[in-house]
Write a structure and sequence with these properties.
234 residues, Elongation Factor Tu (Ef-tu), domain 3, Rossmann fold, 2 domains, globular
Length: 234
């Protein structure tokens, strides 16, 4: 893209928009499925599977933002679907838990760094409960083999089944390092044409990335990663 095209793209993605909550439901008492609707959504450009919105979780005051990945994008009917994991007692979880149909939601987008690799023949996913929305969007658009491991509490497997995701769940061990690190060491990956998506807790993403690149010698171009939340061990 030229410099002018980059500036135009930034301006489009930074535009403030407002949508109405058309529907909201809670899955397994921990994941909020939110459907946003607005005429302005029909004109949104630049979406790629895995991208996110910057949502103002404090409403019209517009001082506090949280980023949430798009689960599904329907420009033809002016809808965006989000999946928001109720992750602790922070302002984002409080906002998502309290949403009701008819509420207004202010947001900007699309942004993000973890998107579908359209050239890959196989897609591997390593993440936790917070990564379900982008991983689901990427897997749905991939059109080729997708596998993955999602670490979390006892509700993760039910969520995977509800969302029809082709992943395996592993239970988190409280007080210990993520099991995804060991899985990355032993994962049987095809030699070529495989892209690995790593997202979730910052410390886990860094550790898994180190294993893949430095211990296993996987080309950095084959790994797409994104920190979704901070480092406190749960």
């Amino acid at each position: 893209m030229t410099t002018l095209e980059n500036i135009k793209s930034w301006l489009i993605n930074d535009e403030l928009r407002c949508a109405t909550v058309r529907n909201v439901q809670t899955l397994e008492n921990c994941l909020r499925h939110i459907v946003l609707a607005a005429e302005c959504i029909t004109a949104m450009q630049g979406y790629l599977p895995g991208l996110e919105l910057a949502v103002y979780v404090d409403g019209e005051s517009q001082r506090l933002r949280r980023k949430y990945s798009v689960f599904r994008f329907h420009p033809e009917r002016g809808e965006i679907e989000l999946l928001v994991y109720l992750h602790g007692q922070g302002p984002g979880s409080h906002w998502a838990a309290g949403l009701q149909a008819g509420d207004s939601v202010w947001f900007r987008g699309f942004t993000g760094r973890i998107t579908l690799d359209t050239q890959a023949a196989t897609h591997w996913f390593l993440g936790d409960e917070t990564t379900l929305a982008p991983f689901a969007a990427i897997a749905a658009a991939a059109g080729s083999r997708c596998e993955g491991v999602i670490e979390g509490n006892g509700k993760v497997q039910a969520l995977l089944e509800t969302l029809w995701l082709p992943f395996t769940s592993v239970p988190r061990k409280p007080g210990s390092d993520s099991r995804l690190i060991g899985i990355a060491r032993t994962l049987d990956l095809p030699e070529v044409n495989t892209t690995i998506y790593v997202a979730g807790a910052a410390r886990t993403v860094a550790a898994v990335n180190y294993v893949l690149l430095h211990e296993r010698g996987i080309d950095a171009d084959r790994v797409r990663r994104k920190n979704f939340w901070g480092d406190k061990r749960r």
